[in-house]
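Q: what sequence does this backbone want?
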């Protein structure tokens, strides 16, 4: 089983469809010509940059990053650091002329305008981070249940400036105790009302949490507190990792000694977090759990949001993303982000510009 899981766990799907942009020919189609409309995804990356001592590197600019996709250089379109509002970096059309942008939100509505006109909307929509907390209330959690609640409550209070926080719990089933809200007190009430339950269906619950998170625009992260391995899910962990990659959602895993003692679970937790750009922590005591939450909070405050519209690429399979820093002083820095994605099925529509009535063939033509 471990061998099969190892082979299947290579990230297969990534790339969040945060916004969709319509690319049109620079000249209007002549009458009778075919106009091809191509919709592509804006790829959003959460990038952590650390120096050789493990300290976060702050104050970087878009020009400091070099992003390639299958070796093809990409232009950073939207950029932000930490919890600041992201900002537009370049037009999606010609470098000297603002391009026409069509932004489609998660509810299916579309807004159009030039890149400069919509720049502020992009920034406000992607500011901060929506944090989804998933808490293990299975029978693994009987010991230290109150300490775990305390660690989560402290984490919620310490979050500086995310847009909203959601709190879910799980044993056999998922409980959406608090849906996304800016009200910290409401989230804390949800934490305090949890009770220990039955078997653990972690991967089932995590899959549903990711689906909920994916319905929201902007930056999303999922923080999982698990006290042990999964013993009830029907969903394989590799499917969960693929969905997180496809939605561009980092997964941070905090687990206790119980999962650490189970080799398969500990390996899965590490690979799942690494594949999505998050991290895994194994905390034996409640003090270590608090430190793990503090480390995640610190990470969220220092992540760079680096987004781009992919350059033309014939590859419809797995696309490898490489992020580097420019300059000699950056050679020793370590970068953590997701390493690729598989684009969604092509969304290409062909529109025919009708001919004038006088030019259309006569219906009374002889046979």
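A:
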């Amino acid at each position: 089983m471990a061998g099969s899981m190892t082979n299947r766990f290579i990230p297969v799907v990534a790339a969040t469809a945060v916004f969709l942009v319509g690319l049109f020919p620079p000249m209007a189609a002549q009458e009778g010509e075919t106009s091809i409309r191509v919709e592509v995804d804006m790829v959003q990356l959460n990038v952590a940059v650390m120096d050789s001592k493990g300290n976060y590197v702050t104050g970087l600019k878009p020009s400091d990053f070099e992003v390639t996709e299958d070796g093809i250089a990409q232009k950073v379109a939207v950029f932000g650091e930490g919890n600041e509002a992201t900002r537009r970096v370049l037009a999606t059309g010609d470098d000297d002329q603002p391009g026409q942008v069509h932004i489609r939100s998660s509810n299916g509505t579309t807004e159009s305008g030039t890149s400069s006109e919509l720049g502020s909307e992009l920034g406000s929509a992607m500011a901060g981070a929506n944090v989804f907390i998933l808490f293990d209330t299975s029978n693994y959690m009987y010991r230290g249940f109150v300490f775990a609640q305390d660690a989560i409550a402290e984490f919620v209070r310490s979050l500086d400036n995310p847009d909203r926080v959601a709190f879910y719990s799980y044993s056999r089933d998922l409980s959406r105790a608090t849906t996304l809200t800016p009200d910290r007190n409401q989230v804390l009430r949800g934490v305090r009302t949890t009770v220990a339950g039955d078997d653990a269906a972690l991967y089932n619950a995590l899959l549903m949490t990711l689906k909920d998170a994916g319905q929201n625009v902007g930056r999303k992260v999922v923080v999982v507190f698990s006290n042990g391995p999964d013993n009830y899910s029907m969903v394989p962990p590799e499917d969960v990792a693929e969905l997180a990659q496809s939605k561009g959602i980092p997964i941070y895993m905090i687990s206790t000694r119980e999962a650490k003692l189970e080799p398969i679970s500990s390996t899965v937790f590490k690979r799942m977090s690494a594949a999505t750009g998050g991290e895994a922590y194994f905390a034996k005591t409640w003090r270590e759990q608090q430190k793990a939450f503090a480390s995640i909070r610190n990470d969220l405050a220092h992540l760079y949001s680096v987004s781009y519209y992919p350059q033309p690429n014939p590859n419809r399979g797995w696309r490898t993303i490489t992020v580097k820093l420019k300059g000699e002083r950056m050679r020793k820095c370590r970068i953590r982000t997701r390493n690729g994605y598989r684009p969604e099925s092509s969304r290409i529509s062909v529109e025919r510009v009708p001919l004038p009535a006088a030019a259309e063939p006569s219906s009374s033509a002889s046979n």
